[in-house]
Amino acid sequence: MSAAKWERRGECNHCGYCCEFIGHKIFVFTPQPPTGATEVDRHFFAVRGIDLVAAGARAALRVDLFTPCKVYDRAARRCAIYAQRPVTCQLYPELPTQIVGTPCSYWFERQVAGQVERVGGNGAQPEIPRIYLEGGANGDRVDPGR
Asked: Of these four, 49, 86, 109, 117, which has the most CB atoms within 10 Å of its CB?
Protein backbone atom coordinates (compact mmCIF):
# COMPACT_ATOMS: atom_id res chain seq x y z
CA MET A 1 0.00 0.00 0.00
CA SER A 2 1.50 3.35 -1.01
CA ALA A 3 1.42 6.53 1.05
CA ALA A 4 -1.07 9.22 0.09
CA LYS A 5 0.42 11.80 -2.26
CA TRP A 6 0.71 15.41 -1.15
CA GLU A 7 -1.21 17.93 -3.29
CA ARG A 8 -0.07 21.54 -3.40
CA ARG A 9 -2.75 24.16 -2.73
CA GLY A 10 -2.93 27.94 -2.64
CA GLU A 11 -1.35 30.73 -4.63
CA CYS A 12 2.01 32.44 -4.53
CA ASN A 13 2.17 35.39 -2.12
CA HIS A 14 5.43 36.64 -3.68
CA CYS A 15 7.35 36.30 -0.41
CA GLY A 16 10.54 35.69 -2.41
CA TYR A 17 11.80 32.77 -0.32
CA CYS A 18 12.16 30.48 -3.34
CA CYS A 19 13.99 33.23 -5.26
CA GLU A 20 16.54 33.91 -2.54
CA PHE A 21 17.16 30.47 -1.05
CA ILE A 22 17.87 27.11 -2.65
CA GLY A 23 16.73 25.21 0.42
CA HIS A 24 17.58 24.60 4.02
CA LYS A 25 19.10 22.05 6.31
CA ILE A 26 18.01 21.34 9.87
CA PHE A 27 20.73 20.35 12.30
CA VAL A 28 19.79 18.68 15.59
CA PHE A 29 22.57 18.56 18.14
CA THR A 30 23.33 18.33 21.86
CA PRO A 31 25.25 21.44 22.94
CA GLN A 32 28.54 20.77 24.72
CA PRO A 33 30.39 22.96 27.23
CA PRO A 34 33.35 24.93 25.86
CA THR A 35 36.81 23.55 26.59
CA GLY A 36 37.58 23.83 30.31
CA ALA A 37 33.98 24.64 31.28
CA THR A 38 31.54 22.39 33.11
CA GLU A 39 28.33 23.88 31.69
CA VAL A 40 26.99 24.78 28.28
CA ASP A 41 27.45 28.47 27.40
CA ARG A 42 23.75 29.42 27.37
CA HIS A 43 24.56 33.02 26.45
CA PHE A 44 26.30 31.86 23.27
CA PHE A 45 23.09 30.15 22.14
CA ALA A 46 20.70 32.82 23.48
CA VAL A 47 22.25 35.61 21.39
CA ARG A 48 21.65 33.39 18.35
CA GLY A 49 17.97 32.86 19.18
CA ILE A 50 18.34 29.29 20.42
CA ASP A 51 16.67 28.64 23.77
CA LEU A 52 18.08 25.74 25.75
CA VAL A 53 15.63 24.59 28.39
CA ALA A 54 17.78 22.08 30.30
CA ALA A 55 21.39 20.98 30.52
CA GLY A 56 22.07 18.44 27.82
CA ALA A 57 18.95 19.47 25.93
CA ARG A 58 18.97 18.88 22.22
CA ALA A 59 18.75 21.93 19.99
CA ALA A 60 17.55 22.33 16.42
CA LEU A 61 19.02 24.90 14.10
CA ARG A 62 17.72 25.69 10.63
CA VAL A 63 20.33 26.86 8.14
CA ASP A 64 18.89 28.55 5.07
CA LEU A 65 21.10 28.37 1.99
CA PHE A 66 21.05 31.99 0.82
CA THR A 67 21.76 32.10 -2.92
CA PRO A 68 19.58 34.83 -4.44
CA CYS A 69 18.56 34.55 -8.07
CA LYS A 70 20.13 37.24 -10.24
CA VAL A 71 16.79 38.07 -11.92
CA TYR A 72 14.80 38.45 -8.70
CA ASP A 73 13.94 42.09 -7.99
CA ARG A 74 14.03 42.22 -4.20
CA ALA A 75 12.60 45.76 -3.98
CA ALA A 76 9.59 44.92 -6.17
CA ARG A 77 9.38 41.36 -4.80
CA ARG A 78 8.99 40.05 -8.32
CA CYS A 79 10.84 37.87 -10.82
CA ALA A 80 12.08 39.84 -13.82
CA ILE A 81 11.53 36.81 -16.09
CA TYR A 82 8.41 35.38 -14.45
CA ALA A 83 6.71 34.35 -17.73
CA GLN A 84 9.90 32.57 -18.87
CA ARG A 85 11.17 31.34 -15.50
CA PRO A 86 12.81 27.89 -15.28
CA VAL A 87 10.61 24.80 -14.85
CA THR A 88 12.05 24.21 -11.37
CA CYS A 89 10.76 27.64 -10.35
CA GLN A 90 7.34 26.95 -11.85
CA LEU A 91 6.96 23.70 -9.90
CA TYR A 92 8.34 24.92 -6.57
CA PRO A 93 7.39 23.88 -3.94
CA GLU A 94 6.84 20.22 -4.72
CA LEU A 95 7.01 18.90 -1.14
CA PRO A 96 5.83 20.30 2.18
CA THR A 97 9.31 19.95 3.68
CA GLN A 98 10.49 22.65 1.26
CA ILE A 99 8.31 25.34 2.86
CA VAL A 100 7.70 24.46 6.52
CA GLY A 101 8.85 27.43 8.59
CA THR A 102 9.08 29.78 5.59
CA PRO A 103 6.80 32.71 4.66
CA CYS A 104 5.50 30.76 1.64
CA SER A 105 1.70 30.84 1.30
CA TYR A 106 1.35 27.46 -0.41
CA TRP A 107 0.21 24.49 1.64
CA PHE A 108 -0.04 20.77 1.05
CA GLU A 109 -2.90 18.36 1.77
CA ARG A 110 -3.32 14.62 1.64
CA GLN A 111 -5.88 12.07 2.81
CA VAL A 112 -4.71 9.83 5.65
CA ALA A 113 -7.15 7.36 7.21
CA GLY A 114 -10.14 9.42 6.07
CA GLN A 115 -8.70 12.66 7.51
CA VAL A 116 -7.20 15.60 5.65
CA GLU A 117 -3.63 16.27 6.74
CA ARG A 118 -2.43 19.82 6.03
CA VAL A 119 1.11 21.21 6.16
CA GLY A 120 2.43 24.69 5.34
CA GLY A 121 0.74 27.95 4.45
CA ASN A 122 2.43 31.23 5.42
CA GLY A 123 4.94 29.48 7.62
CA ALA A 124 2.12 28.32 9.89
CA GLN A 125 4.29 25.52 11.25
CA PRO A 126 6.50 26.26 14.27
CA GLU A 127 9.60 28.26 13.42
CA ILE A 128 12.99 26.77 14.10
CA PRO A 129 15.71 29.30 15.00
CA ARG A 130 17.70 30.15 11.88
CA ILE A 131 21.12 31.25 10.84
CA TYR A 132 21.91 32.38 7.34
CA LEU A 133 24.90 31.54 5.23
CA GLU A 134 26.43 34.59 3.66
CA GLY A 135 27.44 34.70 0.04
CA GLY A 136 25.24 34.29 -2.98
CA ALA A 137 25.09 36.55 -5.99
CA ASN A 138 25.38 39.82 -4.07
CA GLY A 139 27.35 38.56 -1.08
CA ASP A 140 24.77 40.09 1.24
CA ARG A 141 22.91 38.56 4.15
CA VAL A 142 19.20 38.36 4.79
CA ASP A 143 17.96 39.90 8.02
CA PRO A 144 16.72 37.02 10.21
CA GLY A 145 13.90 39.25 11.49
CA ARG A 146 12.46 39.64 7.99
From this structure: 109
Q: Cα–Cα distance between 13 and 67 in angstroms, integer?
A: 20
Query: Would residue 121 count as lying in a domain?
Result: yes
Instruction: Indicate the SS3 state at residue 88.
Output: helix
Identify whether 143 is part of a domain: no
* Cα 54 to Cα 73: distance, rounded to the nearest angstrom: 43
Q: Is residue 139 part of a domain?
A: no
Residue-number span of the structural domain to which 87 is assigned: 7-132
Cα radius of gyration (the chain): 18
Q: Is the dihedral of CA 25, 31, 37, 41 positive or negative?
A: positive
Task: Please give the tally of structural domains in the chain.
Answer: 1
pTM of the model: 0.61
**pLDDT tens-digit series, residues 31-87:** 888 999 988 888 888 887 776 665 456 777 777 788 999 999 989 888 999 999 999
Does residue 140 fall inside a structural domain?
no
